[in-house]
Amino acid sequence: MEKLQRNERIAALIKILSDQPNQLFTFNFFVESFNCAKSTLSEDVEILKGIVERFGLGVVETISGAAGGVKYLPLIGQDKKEEIIYRLCKDLSDPTRILSGGFLYMTDIIYNPAVIDNVGKIFAEQFITKNFNYVVTVETKGIPIAMMTAKYLNVPLIIVRRDSKVTEGSSVNINYVSASSKRIQTMSLSRRALKKNSTVLFVDDFMKGGGTVRGIIELMREFESSVEGIAVLISTKEPEKKFINEYFSLITLNYVNEQENIIDLIPGIKIS
Amino acid sequence: MEKLQRNERIAALIKILSDQPNQLFTFNFFVESFNCAKSTLSEDVEILKGIVERFGLGVVETISGAAGGVKYLPLIGQDKKEEIIYRLCKDLSDPTRILSGGFLYMTDIIYNPAVIDNVGKIFAEQFITKNFNYVVTVETKGIPIAMMTAKYLNVPLIIVRRDSKVTEGSSVNINYVSASSKRIQTMSLSRRALKKNSTVLFVDDFMKGGGTVRGIIELMREFESSVEGIAVLISTKEPEKKFINEYFSLITLNYVNEQENIIDLIPGIKIS
């Protein structure tokens, strides 16, 4: 390959790195791809670090030593994060979203890649240093958010089913009590789904009492694994005492008043 | 903002464009962001076009005129596409995947962002000129693939449920007959889920007789909308006569022989 110009190398660098976020690439990989000297590449990486920082486009990190290299972290920064959460609160508090029974219609938002891509980045940013082995969710509504989170953490996604499926082989099933409805529910996960001694991040769209989380914690225990992080898009204010007491929630839903057509959401991040 | 160097502008350009694939940005947006002349930006864009082409990193497209601008298309090119499909066939034909009943365990692959991101790009590349309004899938296993496809087409995702949910308001429900099992199945979609007169791309992980697709076609008709494209990761060779006769499938499953522990998959793209 003929020699590349600096701007060509830098553009290829950021595209390749950000296509596989949180994935370490060796310097040699790029030295060979670009047919350039290592010192030249180091300069390119330094310039790139400045660019992504300046435009709030994430972080380029270098790791020195024999096992070192360069990787891209999809960190979006405080300002953009607040802007995204504020916008989500605004969109979600539109009174036309109120459904019979005081439920909130939100699938148009939680299935929209343009929105959920950012939520996945925020969740990934929050937990990127934890080096989880998997992201876990339970079907169905949380899957898109969990998928984007897994993408930015660069780990596989596990989807827990509501009943066992012939296409997933032998499975571990558990029963648990829903915190809000007090009904018995089932969760099922293929025995092949995860390796023993894993740590996982549980992601979901909505949390009320936290019963689902407790079910997941119990299910993971069956795989000799543990839930080490919980991230939800919306958690309800009531009940204040949930089955779990440490979680990351982008939005708190105070109440939905069906009679007066009011949805009260608080922007801002809550870790209780 | 002080003046940027060319390599800084180009790196920011490719990152911003590729973070929102298939989204048109005006030249003015970048002229203002970068505080540079329009002619300078045009040169940057031309250089960038060459870079992404050279590294097989997609396509940067300019559209001239008053409603014009620049956008990034996540096209991955024939060579990389073939490599991805070949790799998928290899991974999926591992005989340890055979489950009782001749089913194939594949959730580790179809939920893995590193794999599915590429499948989403291939599907988006195939249908990017059709300007669909939505990507539609039915829960659960096809959701990650459908999500990545929707991301790269830059359109909302719609997830059809197996039964109606209180959290989605009033819904349209249909019954249809599964092509392979001949059993009656249900599909449910919130009345709010899509606008009338939409065209949609149906995405799923697996197709046998095509009964699900026929159900989706019927469901879309209830919304005065139509399925104008079908993309599946794997379709089975048998039955050759499916309910639908035009679809895009990355892999054909010839057969699974449980006794002899053989999975026969054909790489390559089939449009029948």
Write a concise keyword list for the protein shown above.
two-stranded antiparallel sheet; 2 domains; globular; 13 strands; homodimer; 8 helices; Arc Repressor Mutant, subunit A
Task: Give the topology, please.
Two copies of one chain form a homodimer.
Chain A: H1 6-19, H2 27-34, H3 38-54, E1 59-63, E2 69-73, H4 78-92, E3 98-99, E4 103-104, H5 107-110, H6 113-127, E5 134-138, H7 143-153, E6 157-160, E7 171-177, E8 184-190, E9 199-207, H8 211-222, E10 226-236, E11 248-257, E12 262-266, E13 270-271
Parallel strand pairs in A: 5-6, 5-9, 9-10, 10-11
Antiparallel strand pairs in A: 1-2, 3-4, 7-8, 11-12, 11-13
Helix pairs in contact in A: 1-3, 6-7
CATH architecture of the largest domain in chain A: 3-Layer(aba) Sandwich
Task: Report the end-to-end length of chain A measured between terminal Cα atoms.
Answer: 55 Å
Using CB atoms under 8 Å apart, which protein chain pair has the greatest interface? Answer: A-B, 60 and 60 residues
What's the level 1 CATH class of the largest domain in chain A? Alpha Beta
Write down the overall mean pLDDT of chain A: 93
Work out the count of structural domains of chain A: 2
Counting DSSP H or I runs of 4 or more residues, the number of helices of chain A is 8
Tertiary shape of chain A: globular
Portion in beta strands of chain A: 25-35%
Oligomer: homodimer
Order of helices and strands of chain A: HHHEEHEEHHEHEEEEHEEEE
Number of strands of chain A: 13
**What is the third-level CATH name, the topology of the largest domain in chain A?**
Rossmann fold
Question: What percentage of residues of chain A falls in helices of 4 or more residues?
Answer: 25-40%
